[in-house]
From TrEMBL:
Homotetramer. HAMAP family: Phosphofructokinase_II_X. Keywords: Allosteric enzyme, ATP-binding, Cytoplasm, Glycolysis, Kinase, Magnesium, Metal-binding, Nucleotide-binding, Transferase. The record marks 272 as: Important for substrate specificity. This is ATP-dependent 6-phosphofructokinase.
């Protein structure tokens, strides 16, 4: 009998301050570990969307618990601002205006302030983070704060251009860095950041080559960026600047920023990159540097908390359709054909779930969040036999992080410290072949691993728009004087969030969510336990 992989609790979406693994170590925020994540499973149902520290802190018999919670929430989601450190920093009227002016214009005579354009965001504008009023903790996917699932408004900061800015464009040296693995849309975001910076009037814009490594590797030169350089880069996938994992220490990195005179840093990456960005922001504060560090979440895995989705995810799901369709055609055209498609998703099965749903061609979807047996009466292989007998063919979609308990653990990590996973796709292919051979039923098993093809492609139209808005908002956030923030889309509105809140652990598929249930309805698969 197979051993089941550890289930991941799905509803921990709002850890309280002090519950992060981050606090203490000079502001370094570490993504939460799996053992720590499993510990959260033990907390009660009403506490499912908060870390234990917060759950314990709320006394629901206190008639004021709700307003206290909201106050605490407001302070957690407060976005750090330059004036937290430089109290007498003087704002100036924004140089960003929809009435276009030449980016080469000098502002020696002051900044335009008398325009009647009402396109600015007020600093007090907020976006509602949660929009469902669950009336019971047993409602599918319920995220409740108290045992009665009381409605509690949770507001976060609205993104966009502010009327007052805290950086003089001619004094800005802005840098962009892309870290981690590739993701469709990186070039679109770079392009929009550069274009928007130029509209503010910034002339010194550079790209740091190959991720954080580019700050320390003397062989690598920064790349001068302008609208002209980036004009067409979104037409191809990848990153103009290159990506990498690993790199220098935070202290070395900030030394390098100081040497280069960088005072605006745009960081495009996933949880790891954002942990780095937050540490850079903290280090800059410690050194009293007037620097804005702003993240743009990048991950095809869609594993960043609180956001509707991250850029590149949509494109990845769309691109996965080609692989799934090929697997389906192969399986369907063969006598007793079985197609196996592996998609990315280290700890989150979003791509596999959405790609399965979109295709309507998947019979079995396996994700890291939902434990399964391969062998035995309720195992995947027995179901495949049933599918061959009843349908004549079958297609399996498996996320790379699923079923890791079946594979040899190596403890190997990549340069960023991420665990190197075993190949679950190959394992399922081999076990399937072995199983059908043993029971004497012919089966024609075809394995497709399109993972790198999926993330290297160009962003689709929907991601292109998302990248555009996120890139522009990143620049607006920096000019508004915010630092240690990231941009995101929440309930279709664009927001600024403090970095620690979005990376305290990877966002995962909730096995009790309507979406996972829809996926099961679509595939028709049973529980494999
Ligand atoms: N906890 C951390 N603190 C500081 N930097 C980190 C941390 N985790 C990862 N990094 C750095 O962030 C970069 C990207 O991280 P990685 O995990 O590979 O990709 P991603 O950002 O997509 O999750 C790497 O250069 C890595 O060294
Ligand atoms: O082979 P690489 O470059 O390490 O990338 C593989 C990883 O890329 C991802 O798709 C995305 O990871 P990142 O968000 O860390 O870039 C993971 O699911 C996968 O494990
Ligand atoms: Mg990551």
């Amino acid at each position: 009998m197979d051993s089941l992989s550890p289930a991941i609790t799905p509803k921990l979406v709002l850890p309280a301050k002090g519950a992060h693994s981050s606090h203490g170590l000079s502001g370094l925020v570490l993504p939460i570990s799996r053992p720590r994540l499993n510990r959260f499973k033990k907390i009660g149902v009403h506490a499912i969307n908060k870390a234990p520290a917060a759950a314990a802190a709320i006394d629901y018999s206190d008639p004021d618990w709700k307003s206290k919670f909201q106050k605490e929430f407001e302070s957690r989601f407060n976005i750090p601002h330059i004036t937290d450190v430089f109290e007498d920093a003087v704002p100036m009227p924004s140089t960003f205006c929809l009435r276009m002016r030449s980016p080469t214009e000098e502002f020696a005579d002051g900044y335009p302030s008398d325009e009647k354009w009402h396109g600015y965001i007020n600093n007090n504008d907020r976006v509602l983070l949660k929009v469902i009023h669950y009336s019971s903790p047993t409602s599918a996917g319920a995220e409740c704060i108290d045992p009665d699932c009381t409605w509690v408004e949770q507001w976060v900061h609205r993104a966009g251009p502010r009327e007052k800015i805290y950086f003089k464009p001619e004094e800005v040296k802005a840098a962009i860095v892309t870290c981690g693995g590739l993701c469709p849309g990186l070039n679109d975001v770079i392009r929009q950041i550069v274009i928007t910076l130029e509209i503010y009037g910034v002339k010194k814009i550079v790209g740091i080559p190959f991720g954080y490594r580019g700050f320390s590797d003397k062989e690598l030169n920064e790349m001068l960026l302008s609208r002209k350089v980036v004009q067409n880069i979104h037409l191809s996938g990848g990153s103009l600047l290159g990506v990498s994992r690993g790199g220098p220490t935070i202290s070395e990195l900030v030394d390098s920023m100081e040497e280069r005179g960088i005072n605006m840093l745009f960081v495009l990456g996933g949880n790891g990159t954002h942990a780095g960005a937050n540490a850079i922001h903290q280090e800059c504060r410690k050194r009293r540097l007037k620097v804005a560090v702003v993240g743009v979440p990048k991950t095809i895995d869609n594993d960043i908390l609180l956001m509707d989705k991250t850029f590149g995810f949509d494109t990845a799901v769309e691109e996965a359709q080609r692989a799934i369709n090929s697997a389906y055609i192969e399986a369907h055209s063969a006598y007793h054909g079985i197609g196996v498609v592996k998609l990315m998703g280290r700890s989150s099965g979003y791509i596999a779930m959405h790609a399965s749903l979109a295709s309507g061609q998947i019979d079995i979807c396996l994700i890291p969040e939902v434990p399964f047996h391969l062998h035995g009466p309720h195992g995947v292989l027995r179901h495949l036999k049933y599918l061959l007998e009843t349908k004549g063919s079958a297609v399996v979609c498996v996320a790379e992080g699923a079923g890791q308990n079946f594979l040899q653990r190596t403890n190997a990590t990549d340069a960023s410290g991420n665990i190197v996973l075993g190949d679950i796709g190959v394992h399922i292919q081999q076990e399937t072949k072995k199983y059908f051979k043993e029971i004497g039923i012919p089966a024609d098993v075809k394995y497709i691993d399109p993972t790198y093809m999926i993330r290297a492609c160009r962003a689709n139209a929907s991601d292109g728009i998302l990248c555009t808005v996120l890139g522009q908002n990143a620049v607006h956030g920096a000019f508004a004087g915010y630092s240690g923030i990231t941009v995101g889309i929440c309930n279709t509105h664009y927001v600024y969030l403090p970095i620690p809140e979005v990376i305290s652990y990877p966002r995962v598929v909730d096995p009790n969510s309507r979406m996972w249930h829809r996926c099961l309805t679509s595939t028709g698969q049973p529980d494999f336990v």
